């Protein structure tokens, strides 16, 4: 989960005619440009956002150039459609948590039925329904999307998926501040947690000055909303998770004494009341972060970050790494990320399905 500067560099072909290749870098990445091969360009690097790290807006002043057209294909899928909208009246996380239908539309590949609790838990099936009876496998989705995504972006997806796990998930119960929920989402994504659950968010209480804290992490996570703690815990237990609630009490186990290689759901509670009595009663164990100062608790988003970070460290120590998806699961999740990549991804997949269907020979009678 980088510092940046805003730059605007305009160059023309005559001024670069006899120049050596130049490199314009954004953070740790450098892009080589050969002046003779390209027409006049305007480069505008804006402040990076989580959904589009290390990318440039590249606008060609001569769209009929073959070289600029070829470059345009690679860049177009990284365009502004892939960025969050800076609408001051709407916070993305708040909107998702108060509009459950939008969360279901966020997830693209077909999901398992609620009663299908395969262990270890993985939510997706190897199928994407395109309508009109067409269905693509994860391999077909990746083939369809490959020409419209830069290799840098595909490699970033592969790295993220390699370090993803459903073996430990995060549960937030009854938080008042959407900023805290956003911060926990951001930490979950950064640390390789794919599954997060939100129980009964209190939409009547929120602080509007925490907008955009998530940095777009919600786009890449599997978010599930629950109306009750009992229902959430019941489903999580059926998926094979033990429920560990954070609690300061005599029976609490230090997080440093826990084996995080076991499938575990980490539960953090309300900013003021903490974990509910119902959650404490239904959980399998209570855990706590040892405190060495005068205060006896962390901010809830900070506590969630510490818990998840320690879980990753412990799992890495015991298992060699945190990410534990199989090759098939990784391929499916990679297809899921590709379909979430931009607004045009679904249309691209649909067109691919139409072409594939049209090219399929009819069976002989």
TrEMBL record:
Residues 168-309 form the tRNA/rRNA methyltransferase SpoU type domain. The keyword tRNA-binding applies. GO terms for molecular function: RNA methyltransferase activity; tRNA binding. It holds the Pfam family SpoU_methylase. Residues 52-93 are annotated as: Disordered. Gene3D superfamilies: 3.40.1280.10. SUPFAM superfamilies: alpha/beta knot. The keyword Methyltransferase applies. Keywords: Methyltransferase, RNA-binding, S-adenosyl-L-methionine, Transferase, tRNA processing, tRNA-binding. One of its GO terms (biological process) is tRNA guanine ribose methylation. HAMAP family: tRNA_methyltr_TrmH. This is tRNA/rRNA methyltransferase SpoU type domain-containing protein.
